[in-house]
Structures are given as C-alpha cells and as structure tokens.
Amino acid sequence: MDTNWMAHGLCAHEDPAVFFPNDGVGVIKAQRICRQCPKQEHCLEYALTNKIDHGVWGGESERARRRLIRKRNVVAAKAASKAARVAAKAGAPVADVDAVDATGTVEVG
Ligand code: SF4
Q1: Residue 32 is part of which domain span?
Q2: What is the DSSP secondary structure assignment for residue 96, as one 8-state letter?
Q3: Whole-angstrom Cα distance, residue 82 to residue 36?
Q4: pLDDT by residue (tens digit) across 79-91?
C-alpha cells in the first residue's frame, strides 16, 4: 500500500504524541488538525485497512474506527451471503461469482 501521502499530512509538522492522546480532550485536539488535512481520506482508509488500533487517524478515534470496521464487516458478510444465495439460485458454485459491489449487486460469471 502506498504511504507517500504520509509525508503530506498535517501531522508531519506536529508532535506525534498529539495523535496518540490519553483522553477525550486530546482526541478532539488531534481531530481538529485532521479535519484540515488534505490526506484525511487516505489516512482513514490506511488505518482501517491495516486495522491500526491506536491513535487518531483520518480524524477518527480508536473507538470510531472500530465501529467503522464492524460496519464494513457486516456489509461484507451480507454481500457474501447474497452472493451465495444468487450462486445457489443460478446453480453455480460461489467461486463463480465475479463481484459484489458496495450496494450488494452480484455479478455471476
Ligand atoms: S488525517 Fe490526521 S493523522 Fe492523518 S495524515 Fe492528516 S493530520 Fe495526520
């Protein structure tokens, strides 16, 4: 995964400790910086993809990122379940399902 964006984040000019706060006030302080950051989207995606537990990334706290990961897992599970149902209806093995998009639309190849 590309990490070049990290050099262009606003945190590159801050004390790293700001982004690893010990309390809610510290989280809010970090989030204020992140909200102005041009790399916020990359940063959040990086943290979610790599399941980074600690710190404020992409303007989201550790707890908020855990919630986002749980939501993604639910969406992925529903999409997989739908893919299995569609494949079963079509008489195709699940391995023949080409793709499931973010809306849950299934393509069978
Ligand atoms: S969103 Fe926040 S933590 Fe991420 S690169 Fe920007 S300033 Fe740094």
Answers
A1: 4-60
A2: G
A3: 39
A4: 999 999 988 888 8
Residues 32 and 76 placed together within one structural domain of the fold: no
Which atom of ligand 1 is nearest the CA belonging to 19?
Answer: 3
Percentage of the chain beyond pLDDT 90 is 76
Cα–Cα distance, 91 to 61 (Å, whole number): 44
**Two structure tokens written together for 91:** 């008489």
Look up tokens 């989030």; give the residue. Answer: 31
Residues 90, 67: Cα–Cα separation, whole Å: 35
| Cβ atoms < 10 Å from Cβ of 109 | 8
What is the reported pTM? 0.78
- What residues flank ligand 1, with Cβ below 6 Å? 9-11, 19, 33-34, 37, 39-40, 43, 57-59
The total number of structural domains in the chain stands at 2
Tally Cβ neighbours within 10 Å of residue 79: 19
